[in-house]
Amino acid sequence: MKILKTFGDCASSCEAAIQQLEQRGAVNTAKVDAIVQDILAAVRDRGDAAVRQYSATFDALTDDQPLLVSREEMQISWDATSEDLKAAMLLAQANIRAFAEKQLPRAWSFRPTEGMEVGQIIRPLSSVGCYVPGGRYPLPSTLLMTVTPAQVAGVERIVVCSPKPARETLAAAHLAGVTEFYRIGGAQAIAALAFGTSTIAPVAKIVGPGNLYVTSAKIAVSHHTGIDMPAGPTEIIVTSETGDPTGIAADLVAQAEHDPEALAVLITSKSDLAEEVVLEVKRQSQTNTIAQQSLAAQGFAFITASADEAHALTNRLAPEHLTVDAGADLRWVRNAGSVFIGHHTPQSMGDYISGPNHVLPTGRNGRVRGGLSVLDFVKIITVQQYTLDALREVGPHTIALAEAEGLTGHAESVRVRMR
After folding, report:
1. Shared domain check, 356 and 217
2. Distance of CA 29 to the CA centre of its chain
3. How many structural domains is the chain composed of?
4. 344 part of the active site
5. What are the E-state strand segments in 65-222?
6. In this structure, what DSSP letter does residue 21 have?
């Protein structure tokens, strides 16, 4: 983990590092874009055959394994799950559902003038594909985080894709009542969800986190089907003036262990805190190979000239996960996927149990959106209606605007109805 100061002799090299981090989304996926394009084209052309080919190569899928996971296999996995893990899944599911229910938008209407009514109605998407990573670690938490808000939204068809699904993930699928689960992953799974195959019907939208290949594939198919956001690899920023070095380091190591491409950053104006955190990170990651790799490549402790500069730099980098010292810090937070406040709020709580979603924007997409929510699974459709009297009152203003733009057909469509 490198210590860089934003001021003094190394200010220019520090600024260069910050600018590189600002471009991290496009730079990262560029590494794999060519390979991903080949996979997408193959699946689009050859369907299941290509899906099986890449799944055999990358995920050891065998010829005798059906792509579709049976409900019986999910049931067996649930039955084999320990009571402690069942209880944890049930609590996580309940908290995720309660949070999503609070987020659910409502239908409404009002009358700006007599005889003119405008409003909105809410409709769920027809189908979604939930991508659940399964490479390095089983992630039953991601299954619950993606499927549960879709269920709250009322999505009729919910498809799960996960490579080499672990027993824990299958158990979570049983708990969630998933009926369509395919044991495929990577760019080939994204292609199957977007384009469809003889086995897998295409979906309206794809959600969920993933590695560079999954993220690149989602971006590539976004002109063909909806996606939530680029969501991976993992990012963490801790912005602190008074934090505990041991706890800060623990969060940095925890997020760094997700992926060798993960980003882990401390931003502070306190040089002693930065030095203590870096030493503690080194100690805590001694036996964590993946965390060591990501921290060596993308681990930074930025020392700023002031707390205000630390806040500005944090918003500039727009992190996926952000930890701050106290609730008062929310006043300066503008760009982040999810915020964790204080020493007693480890980011791992948000990854599993709190309720807010752990599928979060990466690559500076925290500038334009927050994490996955029930809003990603619904459409807000606007509605308007006029009586003749209201049209006669308001219509002339529309005619004036239409004629000012030279759109005479627009003006006439109003005029003929006012007679």
Report:
1. no
2. 16
3. 3
4. no
5. 108-113, 116-124, 127-131, 157-161, 180-182, 205-207
6. H
309 as an active site residue: the answer is no
Q: In whole angstroms, what is the distance from residue 70 CA to residue 84 CA?
A: 25
DSSP assignment of 89-128 equals: HHHHHHHHHHHHHHH----EEEEEETTEEEEEEEEE-SEE
User: The whole model's pTM is what?
Assistant: 0.93
If pLDDT is split at 50, 70 and 90, which confidence band does 138 have? Answer: confident
Residue 311 and residue 345 share a domain: yes
| Co-location of 188 and 117 in the same domain | yes
Q: Which residues contact 387 (CB under 8 A, 6 or more apart)?
A: 115, 116
Query: Which residues lie closer than 8 Å to 365 by C-beta, 6 or more apart?
Result: 25, 229, 230, 318
Residues 360 and 316 in one domain: yes
Residue 125 sits in a domain whose CATH number is 3.40.50.1980
- Cα dist from 221 to 43, 192, 312, whole Å: 12, 10, 34
Q: How far from each other are the two terminal CA atoms of the chain, in whole angstroms?
A: 74
Place of tokens 């807000």: 380
For 216-245, the pLDDT digits (tens) are 999 999 999 999 998 878 999 999 999 999
Task: Indicate the pLDDT class of residue 25, thresholds 50, 70 and 90.
Answer: confident
Cβ–Cβ < 8 Å for 336, 375: no
User: Using CA atoms, how far apart are residues 256 and 321, in angstroms rounded to an integer?
Assistant: 12
| 321 in the same domain as 185 | no
Instruction: State the residue range of the domain holding 399.
Output: 387-415
Share of the chain above pLDDT 70, in %: 100
Query: Same domain, yes or no, for 81 and 218?
Result: yes
Give the tens place of pLDDT for each residue, 87-132.
999 999 999 999 999 999 999 999 999 999 999 999 999 999 999 9
Clarify whether residues 250 and 350 are in a common domain.
yes
What size, in residues, is the chain? 419
Q: Which of 174, 258, 321, 358 is catalytic?
A: 321
Q: Which amino acid is at 110?
A: F
- 343 Cα distance to chain centroid: 25
348 shares its domain with 256: yes
State phi, psi for 240 to the nearest 5 degrees: -145, 145
